[in-house]
């Protein structure tokens, strides 16, 4: 890819995605798991798969799948409890490698990130060569493999990283994006979920070429603001910058219970540790939010959510706790027993502890 100003097709963007990250870490650290179908998550009937090794994926096991279904698809599936402290440590090692090349990297999660290497700390002209070096250093440092996509925008770089997994490297050069997108099924587009894909199919949109055949007015009519984004990506266009200082939009904690909860007292007990988890994150990062949301999933998988917002960030545990319990009570009695509870805080603001008189929080 040629050097040039960081505009349009002259940008050099890399998307790095670790291969089956959680499961690969477990296989690395436990030789007995290597070459076997592994699922990270709860193995109980009410558990959920957080990640699956490639051996498990061959049987159709996927993340977010219920453990019960995963076992049906792969009876000899091995479940391993997640070790998030280890995953965070390895993620830190990988980010240190990114920082050797550019300060412009945007982590999306523990196992993937965008990098803008248009101008980089090594003075290298080839983004492809940078991606190769990063993959090699990740392998040397962590003994894990990563896949990388190289292109001139974030959307295409993400598509490219998925193209030759695992341990892949694929480049979509300037001038190739529109043709590459044309043949792809819309469900393979990053940002097009199952529900949106089904709606597109109903409108006769199966591929990127079909999507490109619709006017922006048509797409906005059926998909709102997202329609403008779909119009651009069907043409291989994406002007979003890599945002290294992007603050997450929300933080939350949830739990699927071993047995259904039926009484308010049971639900309050189930909610308490989730409130604690969220508050500890807020205290540790000094990032507080204005909106508290409680999520309730019934045993028929119907979801109920309630939210309440304050005028200023909530800096007191007792306030967040009370709001969460109030939101829970507003949903009680629930139409059916409860299998999952969750608490999240959004509208986050990076702030310092407030000193002085406490303000009254009005909802």
Describe the structure.
With 363 residues, this protein is an alpha+beta fold. Among the domains are: 21-83, MutS, DNA mismatch repair protein, domain I (3-Layer(aba) Sandwich), CATH 3.40.1170.60; 177-233, 5' to 3' exonuclease, C-terminal subdomain (DNA polymerase, domain 1), CATH 1.10.150; 250-350, Dna Ligase, domain 1 (2-Layer Sandwich). The chain is built from 13 helices and twelve strands. The strands form three sheets. Strands 5-6-1-7-8 form a five-stranded mixed beta sheet. It has a four-stranded antiparallel beta sheet with strand order 9-12-10-11. α4 (84-99) packs antiparallel against α5 and α10 crosses α11.
What's the layout of helices and strands?
Blueprint: E1 13-18, H1 21-29, E2 38-41, E3 49-52, H2 54-57, H3 67-73, E4 78-80, H4 84-99, E5 105-109, E6 112-116, H5 127-142, E7 146-151, H6 154-163, E8 169-171, H7 177-182, H8 194-202, H9 208-212, H10 216-223, H11 226-233, E9 250-261, H12 264-285, E10 287-298, E11 303-309, H13 317-330, E12 338-350
Parallel strand pairs: 2-4, 7-8
Antiparallel strand pairs: 1-6, 1-7, 2-3, 5-6, 9-12, 10-11, 10-12
């Amino acid at each position: 890819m040629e050097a040039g100003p960081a505009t349009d097709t002259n940008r050099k963007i890399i998307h790095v995605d670790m291969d089956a990250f959680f499961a690969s870490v477990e296989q690395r650290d436990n030789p007995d798991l290597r070459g076997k179908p592994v699922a990270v998550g709860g193995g109980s009937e009410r558990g959920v798969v957080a990640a699956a090794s490639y051996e498990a994926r061959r049987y159709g096991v996927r993340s977010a799948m219920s453990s019960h279904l995963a076992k049906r698809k792969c009876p000899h599936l091995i479940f391993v409890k997640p070790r998030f402290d280890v995953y965070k440590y390895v993620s830190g090692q990988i980010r240190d490698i990114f920082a050797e090349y550019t300060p412009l990297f945007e982590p999306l999660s523990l196992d993937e990130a965008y990098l803008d290497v248009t101008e980089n700390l090594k003075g290298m002209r080839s983004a492809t060569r940078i991606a190769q070096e990063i993959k090699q250093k990740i392998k040397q440092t962590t003994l894990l493999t990563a896949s990388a996509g190289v292109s001139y925008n974030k959307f295409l770089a993400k598509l490219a990283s998925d193209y030759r997994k695992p341990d892949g490297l694929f480049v979509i050069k300037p001038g190739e994006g529109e043709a590459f997108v044309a043949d792809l099924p819309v469900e393979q587009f990053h940002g097009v979920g199952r529900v949106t894909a089904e709606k597109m199919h109903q409108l006769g949109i199966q591929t990127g070429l079909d999507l490109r055949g619709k006017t922006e007015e048509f797409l906005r009519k059926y998909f709102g603001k997202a329609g403008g984004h779909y119009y651009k990506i069907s043409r291989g266009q994406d002007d979003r910058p890599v945002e290294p200082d992007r603050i997450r939009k929300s933080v939350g904690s949830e739990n699927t219970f071993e047995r259904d909860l039926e009484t308010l007292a049971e639900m309050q007990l189930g909610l308490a540790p989730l409130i604690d988890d969220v508050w500890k994150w807020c205290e540790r990062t000094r990032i507080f939010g204005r909106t508290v949301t409680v999520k309730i999933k019934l045993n028929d998988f119907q979801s109920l959510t309630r939210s309440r917002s304050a005028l200023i960030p909530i800096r007191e545990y007792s306030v967040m706790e009370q709001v969460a319990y109030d939101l829970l009570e507003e949903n009680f009695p629930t139409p059916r027993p409860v299998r999952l509870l969750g608490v999240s805080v959004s509208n986050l603001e990076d702030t310092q502890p407030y000193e002085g008189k406490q303000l009254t929080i009005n909802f």
